[in-house]
Design a protein that fits this description.
2 domains, 7-stranded mixed beta sheet, 26% helix, binds S-adenosylmethionine
């Protein structure tokens, strides 16, 4: 199926990478739309930085739009009732253009409130892209923000970013590991996605809080272990983690801790790890010295003293 994904402007490159990893396909980006041919199911249940998914119907130059709308076989895609929605259109209204669709359908019914068939046009400079809405991403990330969880901690990350980094590991099924799990922000997202989760932390208080959060979201398939993440000895297929750098890490030599962790990860990793470093650490040297391969990197501005560097690693 030829699909396009309407990406969140928050982080276009992260949104694109999530899709490429989950579909295992390269796509084409036009502004905030990302075009991929794929038959992968349930992407709407996984993606974090995508707003909606569409079946791609046509792309044309703006000055050919009316002719294209008149000749397109809308009946093939129409079910029950329809609405036409426009994004970023300066010169047309929905009503003006919907009449071309209306006149090509047998017994057309318009439903502006809750249409079964939603045709949508995206105006991007001199291009118009038309799609039929397949699904909107409605995951309630905001309701799971760290401060709304029963056990919280200031260093916990947003559920949306947590989802994205889990997706970047490429996990489709099986077991997921967070070696610095804290109160379990990343583990909760991986658990809700249906993966069995294993969290390590050196601080038993953090593990207690992680257990409270996992139970709160009715996640059953989890294990929590008190362990120094630099000393883990087991094969790990999929790992995503946010390294410790917030309050409470002032006394720790971060470079030493990160180097020891990455060096140990080299021994254990069999597929892919996504590790978040703070921007001010020379992570490239740490990774180079470990022998792991740096496959991709992304930046997420967090606040004026912190940009998170999201690093995808393979062995
Ligand atoms: C950035 S927080 C993790 C936040 C977590 N990603 C979340 O979203 O809730 C870092 C955690 O690493 C733990 N930690 C620090 N040094 C550690 C070590 N050597 N091994 C394991 N855990 C460690 C701290 O106790 C803290 O809970």
């Amino acid at each position: 199926m030829n699909l396009f994904f309407y990406l969140s402007k928050e982080n276009i490159s992260l949104a694109q990478a999530e899709i490429e990893t989950l579909t295992n396909k390269k796509g084409q980006l036009i502004d905030e739309l990302f075009f991929v041919s794929t038959n992968k199911k349930n992407l709407d249940k996984k993606l974090a930085y995508t707003r909606a998914i569409y079946l791609h119907l046509l792309t044309c130059k703006k000055d050919q739009l009316i002719t294209k709308l008149q000749s397109f076989y809308w009946q093939k895609y129409y079910k029950k009732d329809f609405a036409l929605r426009l994004h970023h259109s300066k010169e047309f209204t929905e009503k003006q253009l919907a009449k071309y669709i209306w006149s090509s359908i047998k017994n057309p019914k318009v439903n502006l409130k809750d249409p079964t068939t939603s045709f949508e046009l995206f105006f991007i400079e001199d291009l118009v892209v038309c799609g039929k809405l397949i699904s909107k991403i409605t995951e309630p990330f905001l309701s799971r923000k760290p401060h709304l969880k029963p056990a919280h901690h200031p260093s916990s990350m947003s559920p949306k970013l947590a989802r994205a980094i889990i997706n970047l590991t490429g996990i489709q099924k099986g077991s997921f590991v967070d070696p610095f799990c804290g109160v379990g922000g990343i583990l909760v997202e991986a658990g809700l996605m249906g993966f069995s989760v294993l969290g390590y932390d050196i601080d038993p208080e953090m593990l207690k809080k992680a257990a409270i959060n996992l139970k709160h979201y009715k996640i059953k398939n989890y294990k929590l272990r008190k362990k120094d993440a630099t000393k883990i000895q087991r094969k790990i297929k999929y790992l995503a983690t946010d390294l410790p750098y917030g309050r409470g890490t002032k006394k720790i030599n971060k470079k030493t801790l990160y180097s020891a962790f990455i060096k140990n990860l080299k021994k254990n990793l069999s597929h892919r790890a996504v590790v978040i470093f703070p921007h001010y650490i020379d992570y490239k040297t740490i990774i180079k010295q470990s022998g792991l391969k740096l496959k991709q990197e992304f930046s997420v501005y967090t606040h004026h003293t912190l940009t998170r560097k999201i690093i995808v690693l393979e062995n």
